[in-house]
Amino acid sequence: MTLQKAIDTLNQKFPGCDAAPMVEFNGRETDGIWFRNSEGYSLSDGPMIDTYYWEDTFGTHPKVEAALKSLGYFSEAYDSGTLMAYKI
Q1: How many domains does the chain have?
Q2: How far is CA 17 from CA 21, 27, 85, in A?
Q3: What pTM did the predictor assign?
Q4: Which band of pLDDT confidence, cut at 50, 70 and 90, is reported for residue 5?
């Protein structure tokens, strides 16, 4: 799966998460994904990223983590409110 297809899939599945290529965050070309709205975006049952709320998935909402895994990615917090995803 291409980076753009993964981003499109995530944005369709989680409207409002605002997934984008990581190059828009740090200026470096990678296969990484940056969630521009990770700090402000919530699903119906909780926030997208919260290190205290989602301890079992290291801060990422379990539904988002499962979707990332199905696309061949894993999540990682850049800081307490910024979520990134990288190829497995």
Answers
A1: 1
A2: 13, 20, 13
A3: 0.92
A4: very high
